[in-house]
Specification:
The protein is mainly α. It is built from seven helices and no strands. It is elongated.
Length: 172
């Protein structure tokens, strides 16, 4: 290789995933796209809640992948605002746990889903398994993909699950 030519840089997975993770958090906090604030208003909310400095333009650049050099200070500000550990942006395992919790919180926004879950409480494990099979079949029949929440034989998804507006404090 000559000194004038440079090999292409390898893709950096952490950087590549940052924008998607930020968009996922925004969508989880503001599920209705019609009511979702623009980046300028969101940046103002972030500044007011955390005291951290972030502009709407910079937030848009991070969320769209145009800018990839987030500072540690801004990473901390974003994590504080969205109620996640800063590791959410950097660690696949933490991000997977938080995303599972976000999917559950999103599903529980629907009153019918909550009612179904509440009515199933107290049923035997065999009955719950039968209900899960029926729901999976109903998803197939209606052309829906499999649910994004992993099976949890213990029946609990861990700490931090609750109403949709609860925030995920530690990424666990």
């Amino acid at each position: 290789m000559s000194s004038g030519s440079q090999a292409p840089r390898p893709e950096r997975p952490l950087v590549r995933k940052f924008d998607q993770r930020l968009r996922d958090l925004i969508a989880a906090l503001y599920p209705d796209e019609r009511k979702r604030p623009g980046y300028a208003r969101l940046a103002k909310e972030i500044r007011e809640k955390t005291g951290g400095a972030i502009s709407g333009t910079y937030l848009w650049e991070l969320a769209t992948g145009k800018k990839r050099n987030v500072t540690l200070e801004q990473l901390d500000v974003l994590a504080e605002f969205f109620g996640v550990a800063a590791e959410y942006f950097l660690n696949d395992e933490v991000a997977d746990r938080v995303n599972t919790q976000l999917a559950l919180a999103s599903a529980l926004r629907d009153t019918r889903v909550r009612n179904l879950a509440l009515r199933a409480e107290g049923l035997s494990p065999a009955t719950l398994d039968a209900l899960l099979m029926m729901v999976n079949e109903a998803r197939k029949v209606s052309g829906r993909p499999p649910a994004g929440i992993a099976d949890d034989p213990g029946g609990a998804t861990g700490p931090g699950t609750g109403p949709a507006d609860d925030r995920i404090a530690d990424g666990t």
